[in-house]
Amino acid sequence: RRERQRFVDKNGRCNVQHGNLGGESSRYLSDLFTTLVDLKWRWNLLIFLLTYTVAWLVMASMWWGIAYLRGDLYRAHDDTYSPCVANVYNFPSAFLFFIETEATIGYGHRYITERCPEGIVLFLFQSLLGSIVDAFLIGCMFIKMSQPKKRAETLMFSRAAVVSQRDGKLCLMFRVGNLRNSHMVSAQIRCKLIKSRQTPEGEFLPLDQCELDVGFGTGADQLFLVSPLTICHEINSKSPFFCLSQRSLRSEQFEIVVILEGIVETTGMTCQARTSYTEDEVLWGHRFLPVMSLEDGFFRVDYSQFHATFEVPTPPYSVKE
């Protein structure tokens, strides 16, 4: 069948766009720090460069303005005259003085004299403003660089989910794996079934979310993700797939969203990986190929068979039937 629109892509990206916010868009400015962190890298770098460039030019212009109003620019070479800032002759020299002060380079050629109270006040203002700008922008860049989003790239999900029997019960299963040697601490998995439905009152819910039990009561949803694991949802009378059969699967339209959360062992930050399975990606009567083998002193995982499945005898009837 032709691939339909997904709510969540296979790579975990949510296909939701917010429009016609109206006055609600001002909320983004009230939380400016998070807004900057959520921006793409090219916009972050552009804002970073523009903020520093504008701040430097404005502050340098203020130093040049003090020198111009005091007449220091015309008497800078007079040895008997005490200017506000020594050796500031024009705008480039005022800009260099600001950079030396802001970056605490301290070459010593340009300096504030004690007979310039307005220069001392401007110096204090520059120090406070520079600290605020540095803390805000550098903190924003650090948080953005340290986000564990790329850690999710090394968490794998099987391309398809399967329906087959396990321990005499019909189950919906998919596989997850961790490509890195560093572990995901306190890894937990959740599943949401997204399907349109109509309530008995006649209300239509286009994207109704229903929880799929993957072992909440038994603790099976808490994963020790050292090797690839097969996540199992038992189809019983409490499952939304209670009436699902091999024949009805061809006419159903649903999406299973899988959310894997855990703490990155190396950084201690929370990471989330997502994927989804549509009805076309659920294989009835299949089982995953084994990927673990015992070798000399260790267990080996063959990821070339990670997505592979094979057919097994499975009744085509629903659990209800």
UniProtKB/TrEMBL annotation:
Inward rectifier potassium channel C-terminal domain mapped to chain residues: 155-320
Coarse class of the protein's main subcellular location: membrane
Which stretches make up the Potassium channel inwardly rectifying transmembrane domain? 8-148
> Where found?
Membrane
GO biological process per UniProt: potassium ion import across plasma membrane; regulation of monoatomic ion transmembrane transport
Q: Keywords of this protein's UniProt record, alphabetized?
A: Ion channel, Ion transport, Membrane, Potassium, Potassium transport, Transmembrane, Transmembrane helix, Transport, Voltage-gated channel
Entry's Gene3D superfamilies?
A: 1.10.287.70, G protein-activated inward rectifier potassium channel 1 (2.60.40.1400)
Family, according to the entry, reads as follows: Belongs to the inward rectifier-type potassium channel (TC 1.A.2.1) family. KCNJ3 subfamily.
Q: What is this protein called?
A: G protein-activated inward rectifier potassium channel 1
Q: Which organism is it from?
A: Cochlearius cochlearius
Q: Which gene encodes it?
A: Kcnj3_0
